[in-house]
Fold this sequence. Notes:
Layout: H1 2-25, H2 29-32, H3 36-68, H4 76-96, H5 102-118, H6 130-140, H7 144-152, H8 163-204, H9 210-236
Helix pairs in contact: 1-3, 1-4, 3-4, 3-7, 4-5, 5-9, 6-8, 7-8, 8-9
Amino acid sequence: MNEYLIIAKHCLSISVGYxxxxxxxxxxxxxxxxxxxxxxxxxxxxxxSFILFYIAVNMSYDLLSDYLEGIxxxxxxxxxxxxxxxxxxxxxxxxxxxxxxxxTKIHHTVTTLxxxxxxTLDINDYSNIGILILVYSFFSVxxxxxxxxxxxxxxxxxxxxxxxxxINKNRYIDxxxxxxYYIYALLCAINWTINSIIxxxxxxxxxxNWEYILYAVIxxxxxxxxxxxxxxxxxxxxxxxx
Length: 242
């Protein structure tokens, strides 16, 4: 029950974050020109990038500290708290952000269901898929620049009458897109490699069970979204950035 209270607390905190960030962005002229659904989408992605950055820094520090102290057993409670924070933004987005793309809704629903199942697992028991969920989530948080770009791209100004005034800002946004693609591609490659190795070991030892097979089917949808987003970032990054 405590885990579900943690999710509720994180969802409440993130909802407050939505309101605060929305209010701050109301002072931005470009933001105010957007439709309400687009404004909420911008807030969602800015907020998620901040949350992922927070998790990346703090979770890495906690895991490294435990390792240096000789602690090899992962703290289930700590991992679940970070997992709840990771997914709570997706849960809130499903409720408050209008007109989310269908693929995004499916993605957020899948991550929510995986989190609820993750709460029932012992991360130190390698017979279950807990370690796979942890590995995928751990590397995913370092892609926080992708979500930042998904929000920041709306602040580009394409009007030729204002291009001189905003050229530096546009260049910064293009640079974020450019580097987000390479970071995202690298993280996905590492992620898929580690997961593939785990599956090969399972197959070699004849310990691959139905849980791993079902997880592979579910993750194929997530990977498909990763490939689509990566291809989109790549095409956008073809613009030469000076």
